[in-house]
């Protein structure tokens, strides 16, 4: 009796997944082969029968493994457009088959990544792992994705363009000519070209992700040729928030400290896991700046988060979440609601953030701005500016419109002919984030 056979296991499919889907067919096939073996070999005494069963099982296992390997080889050969004596793969069919394979592979890998991310987040909420590990994994993955993706095809391209305009204006407004700039959590060096246009002398980039640093080095070499970047660039991997910068920069003798500007773009929220970590970060900033130097950055606006959270009743007992087609926020804890719409502790207020084609449910921490201002004051940094992206753009864009390139302006051109951002992207950027600047006005005795 013929038994339906399991299809070959795709190379990207795990053995566990394969067994779950087709294990029943493999089992039936094994039973049939055992029955055929028994028909050929008559039963002997019980000891001989037990020994035969063990030998038969081992043989079947070897046959099955050999068969699966053969099937996998055939499948791979087929996908690579090879041919056997009995079968030729049509060139017209090949691209479709390869496309199907790639789609299935990407879907499988995506599901595996989502499963791993879910497990990581559960450990974070349970206090069993450090947020830094999740952040590093996320940005390492984003670095790999960016190598093969086309930026102009991003579903949030208008949002990315708008954020870049905000950063360009912020950097231009507070960075003096020939400045020495230190960027903490520099990522892949997305702001390298911005500094090239304002004629700085040295840019020092530090990030916790080594893959991001390697990509930043590659990007700088490319831009150096294309845009004729003339400033010196120094890049190094290291924890900018949880540890002192001393051990990192002591191996970078060309760094010209103290700096004129320290920048942290879309990353300072990771430092607010604990008070110790937040203070260490601001201490690193203060120790790196000269008197009169500026500390600039962009962070999620705690006032906007409060506005959204206050829409929920105080007795709401489920995870708090909101968002739209572009972004999603989720708080596992309802402490803000039960504490009369305020955070009992300004540190460690964890939420997960999703932004289409950019951030995949990465854990972040609320940065209560009044707490950030207080810490900065402790280290000799006075507040110069704090505005939502909406207000900052409205106030500053008219001043900088004439210095922006045609491509920059086209990137934020709305359907109504005005400049800015609209729709779901507006809430995910213009409302969600704020820009800030502090100035170092005094030295503080820092151990």
UniProtKB/TrEMBL annotation:
List its EC numbers. 2.1.1.56
**Stretch forming the signal peptide:** none
What does the entry list as the binding residues for S-adenosyl-L-methionine?
A: 167, 185, 207, 239, 265, 270
Out of the domains of life, which is the source?
A: Eukaryota
Q: Which InterPro entries has this protein been placed in?
A: mRNA_G-N7_MeTrfase_dom, mRNA_G-N7_MeTrfase_euk, RG7MT1, SAM-dependent_MTases_sf
Question: Which keywords label this protein?
Answer: Coiled coil, Methyltransferase, mRNA capping, mRNA processing, Nucleus, RNA-binding, S-adenosyl-L-methionine, Transferase
Annotated region described as Disordered, given as residue ranges: 33-53
Where along the chain is mRNA bound?
163-164
Major localization listed first in the record, in broad terms? nucleus
Matching Pfam families: mRNA_G-N7_MeTrfase
Q: Where in the cell is it found?
A: Nucleus
- Gene3D superfamilies the UniProt entry points to: Vaccinia Virus protein VP39
Does Transferase appear among the keywords?
A: yes
- A GO CC annotation given for this chain: nucleus
Entry GO MF terms: mRNA 5'-cap (guanine-N7-)-methyltransferase activity; RNA binding
Q: Which family does it belong to?
A: Belongs to the class I-like SAM-binding methyltransferase superfamily. mRNA cap 0 methyltransferase family.
PANTHER family per UniProt: MRNA CAP GUANINE-N7 METHYLTRANSFERASE, MRNA GUANINE-7- METHYLTRANSFERASE
Stated role: Responsible for methylating the 5'-cap structure of mRNAs.
What is the recorded name of this protein? mRNA cap guanine-N(7) methyltransferase
**Organism, scientific name:** Hanseniaspora uvarum (Yeast)
Record lineage: Eukaryota, Fungi, Dikarya, Ascomycota, Saccharomycotina
